[in-house]
Design a protein that fits this description.
The protein has 886 residues and is α/β, with parallel strands linked by helices. The protein is built from 27 helices and 29 strands. It has a four-stranded antiparallel β-sheet. α17 runs parallel beside α21 and α19 runs antiparallel to α20. The longest helix has 28 residues. The structure holds one RNA strand of 76 nucleotides.
Length: 886
RNA sequence: GGGCAGUUAGCUCAGCUGGAAGAGCAUUUCCCUUACAAGGAAGGGGUCGGGGGUUCAAGUCCCUCACUGCCCACCA
């Protein structure tokens, strides 16, 4: 098998992702004999194109799925997309705008046709990109939040909640986006600090001289004020409570009320109350029975105000009101002030709180159940630190505004009887139903459906159930087997928007949590720690990275820096490093495969014959154990680092290099024996890293196994924790030899000895503890330190002009007469003496500390003593050596 | 205002239950040694944010301050 010298990701990737799809490698069916491990994808919006956040999120899910599959679980990862409500509708609206049209020009029906057409044409882009990313999803199960099955789930959920009385309609203060033309839920509002002013306005008393000064960030809303509120215990106003004031510009009588929520230390301690356009004021109004005047309509224009201001936008009204207040002497002062302003999470338009008729869901019961599930550890958070904010959020939740005044989405399945003129009949109750009702109890047969659609997150909240057919007839074998799912993998930005609500709905409808583990990863940031955004121009496109460095490199780089719950910074360098790693894997494999030429058959079992074999097996076993437990703890970043470190610094740098001695052996048995170990470990390594790097491992696995049917994703982990015996002794012995080799190399490097020069070395044995281990493996030292001759002795005479290395009970002389720079060697040795002196000082300080000797464990004291002895010996020997130089 | 993270080499980050500071990138020197120059070997570089404390011993535990980031809140 010919392998290219450089790993060519493109050919390999195309071949394999097609293979996985065509062969349905990742499809799963209920199987009572196997344990399921299930994940449902956080469905990306149909507007989506793969960005780094998706790449990270889906890579992590894929790692979990692929690893569990290697462990023998019946794994299932369900793909799908979300219709994305407002976000998607506005994409199509923008397209219409380019043609100079609005959705109203088309009308609801035609507009929705357009939406569906768009969704059919481009809505699956992101799923294709996930295929390129290598995601092991069961594509036959691809779901869409607005397909028939999911729509039925939504209807069923709505009707159940409606019939339980949990869904109700009411006119309340809601967050209104004037741009999107719809109400939003509380969490769909994002707050951002904004520089503004604090206007201080005088409200004069009606029956006496004087006035009260109120401070406000929204002077225009004074037109809708119905009171001024002060703190009940504010002495400045204790005599004024109940007094009547004249509202400037409007000339309306309003009174002063007392309310606990007013902070007397803020501003003047007096607050203007606009019950119809401020949440706090609305609360005050409820407590004090205040009148409610709506002065801003859903288009953001002023209404119910003096003629002069009617029809103005909020901004215009603000200017006019401030100007008039100033002119009429009501403006005390204007201060600079910075405060947070609510904005629409989709279009960033400033949110207008206003009164509106909406559908609400009472969530108190399901919230409590969700909190209990978290407290009983039925839902486990990784990292655990997310549990607290999650629980806190659920505990303070207000009813969820679930209706939206847009067209794209699940139309609310509520029907109203209408009279002959098409007017809703006031005396008939609205009905929630799957289909338009045939007949009402009142006898009428004409119905209209509610115009609103549901919050897109309503259907998302049903996702872990609806993907398995919940609400779609009796076909729920999948639901029984796969629900609750095993893990949910997501970023923290949708913890409340989505995660919490799935738990609420799961508890409500299934009486069980939707998933047992919530793995929360961080956000991908750019090199300087900024969030990636199109406006900042710092977006790194994962498709570009896949193209340039390979998908495995992208995945590895992301995984390596994905510590649970922490944001990560990525840059081209990190992908480059990962690309180099994939090339390293490729070439190490290539080396082994090249050496298989002429070898007919290898055994599956391995027979360690010498130190390096035992050592590499011990090291690998340790690595495999660690990696397994890392994966199981969702610690994928540690798994990635551990595998990288083992493979590069242990397997390649040491073991492969040492294997070359036997690789050139004329005895085929010797060569076979080392190849068996090399392959055994390589294959196990490939399995362990295949969840992170599925493409390159699939390719090498197939080549190594020499047959087309060898599919790594379908293999079972060959390393189990007890299979291989760890010989700790081999690690100790090996480290002695590695240390000797490194020291000789250092001398060669510092003395500029050509790598080609086969120099001699004399090992004077000072301490026989390691003598045999080193003698037995002198071929290692010769090979890796490039020595021509190596001799041992007890009283070896120091050759003239030789360099000195002290290591593990040996005094090593490298006769370098003619090659050595005497001054350089003297300088090098002096430096070592200085280091040894410092060591003596440190260790002596410890040993002369009575408390240390008295309280530290014996083993620590012995260690320090040994270090002191070594330092002393070092100085003695180096001094000896210095005498022989020059 | 409350909460949660983070602060370790020039940059990005590891360092588990406390016992001599690590990796990658960058940098310096040498090397195209027949797996890999997308590579190999060796080196330089850190008083682990400041200050206290516990301990024989603290990057690691406790307190406190500072800064950065994020989340939550009825910041008029």
């Amino acid at each position: 098998m010919e392998m290219e010298k450089v790993y060519n990701s493109k050919n390999v990737e195309e071949k394999w992702y097609k293979y996985w799809i065509e062969n349905k490698t990742f499809s799963a069916k209920p199987d009572k004999n196997k344990k399921p491990f299930t994940i449902v994808i956080p469905p990306p919006n149909v507007t989506g194109s793969l960005h780094m956040g998706h790449a990270l999120n889906n890579t992590l899910q894929d790692i979990i799925i692929r690893f569990k599959k290697l462990q023998g679980f019946n794994t299932l990862w369900v793909p799908g997309t979300d219709h994305g409500g407002i976000a998607t509708q506005s994409v199509v609206e923008r397209m219409l705008k380019k043609e100079g049209k609005t959705k109203y020009d088309l009308g609801r029906e035609k507009f929705l046709e357009k939406m569906w057409q768009w969704r059919t044409e481009t809505g699956d882009t992101i799923l294709d990109q996930l295929k390129k990313l290598g995601c092991g999803l069961d594509w036959d199960r691809t779901a869409f939040t607005m397909d028939e099955v999911r729509s039925n789930a939504v209807k069923k959920a709505f009707i159940e909640l409606f019939d339980k009385g949990l869904i109700y309609r009411g006119k309340r203060l809601v967050n209104w986006c004037t741009h999107c033309g719809t109400a939003l839920s509380d969490i769909e509002v994002e707050y951002e600090d904004e520089k503004s002013n604090l206007w201080h306005i005088k409200y004069p008393f009606k029956d006496s001289e004087g006035y009260v000064i109120v401070a406000t960030t929204r002077p225009e809303t004074m037109l809708g004020d119905t009171a001024v509120a002060v703190a009940p215990d504010d002495e400045r106003y204790s005599g004024s409570i109940g007094k009547i004031m004249i509202l400037p510009l409007v000339n309306k009588e309003i009174k002063i009320v007392a309310d606990y929520i007013v902070d007397k230390s803020f501003g003047t301690g007096a607050v203007k109350v606009t019950p119809a356009h401020d949440a706090t004021d609305n609360e005050i109004a409820k407590r004090n029975n205040l009148e409610l005047i709506e002065i801003i309509d859903i288009s953001g224009k002023m209404i119910n105000v003096p003629e002069k201001y009617a029809g103005l936008s909020v901004i215009e009204a603000r200017k006019a009101v401030v100007a008039d207040l100033e002119e009429q002497g009501f403006l005390e002062k204007i201060e600079d002030y910075s405060h947070s302003v609510g904005r629409c999470y989709r279009c960033s338009t400033t949110i207008e709180p206003l009164m509106s008729e909406q559908w609400f869901l009472n969530v108190s019961g399901m919230s409590k159940n969700a909190v209990d599930a978290a407290n009983e550890e039925k839902t486990v958070f990784v990292p655990q630190s997310w549990k607290k904010p999650y629980v806190l959020w659920l505990e303070n939740l207000r009813d969820w505004c679930i209706s939206r005044q847009i067209w794209w989405g699940h139309r609310i399945p509520v029907y109203y009887c209408v009279d002959a003129n098409g007017q809703r009949k006031a005396d008939c109750k609205p009905k929630a139903a799957f289909e338009t009702p045939k007949e009402c109890v009142c006898g009428c047969k004409d119905f209209v459906q509610d115009n609103d659609v549901l919050d897109t997150w309503f259907s998302s909240a049903l996702w872990p159930m609806s993907v398995f057919g919940w609400g779609d007839g009796d076909n729920n074998e999948d639901l029984k087997y796969f629900y609750p799912t095993s893990a949910l993998v997501t970023g923290h930005e949708i913890l409340y928007l989505w995660v919490a609500r799935m738990v609420q709905f799961g508890m409500e409808f299934m009486k069980d949590i939707p998933y047992s583990h919530v793995f929360i990863h961080g956000i991908v940031r750019d090199k300087s720690g900024k969030k990636m955004s199109k406006s900042l121009g710092n977006v790194i496109d994962p498709l570009g990275i896949m193209d340039k460095f390979g998908t495995d490199a992208l995945r590895f780089a992301l995984t390596q820096s994905a510590a649970p719950g922490r944001d990560m910074q990525v840059s081209d360098e990190s992908f480059l490093a990962a690309r180099n790693f994939s090339n390293k894997i490729w070439n190490a494999s290539r080396f082994i495969i090249m050496n298989l030429e002429g070898i007919d058959k290898l055994e599956d079992n391995i027979n360690p014959a010498e130190l390096a074999d035992e050592w590499v097996i011990a090291e690998f076993t340790n690595t495999a154990k660690k990696v397994t437990s890392y994966y199981e703890a969702y610690d994928m970043d540690s798994a990635a680092r551990e595998l990288y470190d083992f493979f590069w610094t242990k397997y390649c740098d040491w073991y492969i290099e040492l294997s070359k001695i036997r690789m050139t052996s004329t005895d085929l048995k010797v060569k076979k024996q080392v190849l068996e170990i090399l392959i055994y470990i390589l294959k196990s390594f490939l399995q362990l890293i295949s969840p992170i790097m599925p493409f390159i491992t699939a390719e090498i696995w197939q080549i190594l196994n020499g047959e087309k049917s060898a599919i790594i994703a379908e293999s079972q982990l060959q390393i189990t924790n007890d299979e291989l015996q760890i010989n700790d002794e081999s690690i100790k012995k090996m480290s002695v030899i590695q240390d000797i080799i490194t020291k000789i190399r250092t001398i060669r490097s510092e003395m500029n000895i050509s790598p080609a020069a086969q120099i001699e070395a004399f090992f004077n044995v000072l301490d026989s503890a390691n003598e045999n281990a080193v003698k037995d493996n002198e071929s290692y030292i010769k090979q890796l330190a490039k020595l021509g001759l190596l001799s041992f002795g007890k009283d070896i005479q120091r050759p003239k002009n030789s360099a000195l290395a002290l290591a593990n009970g040996f005094e090593i002389f490298l006769p370098l007469d003619g090659l050595i720079d005497i001054e350089k060697e003297k300088a090098r040795l002096s430096k070592e003496i200085a280091a040894a002196m410092a060591e003596i000082e440190r260790t002596n300080a410890k040993l002369s500390n009575e408390n240390f000797v008295k309280r530290a464990p014996e083993i620590e004291i012995e260690k320090i003593k040994a270090r002191l002895n070594e330092a002393n010996l070092k100085i003695e020997k180096i001094n000896d050596s210095l005498k022989f130089l020059g």
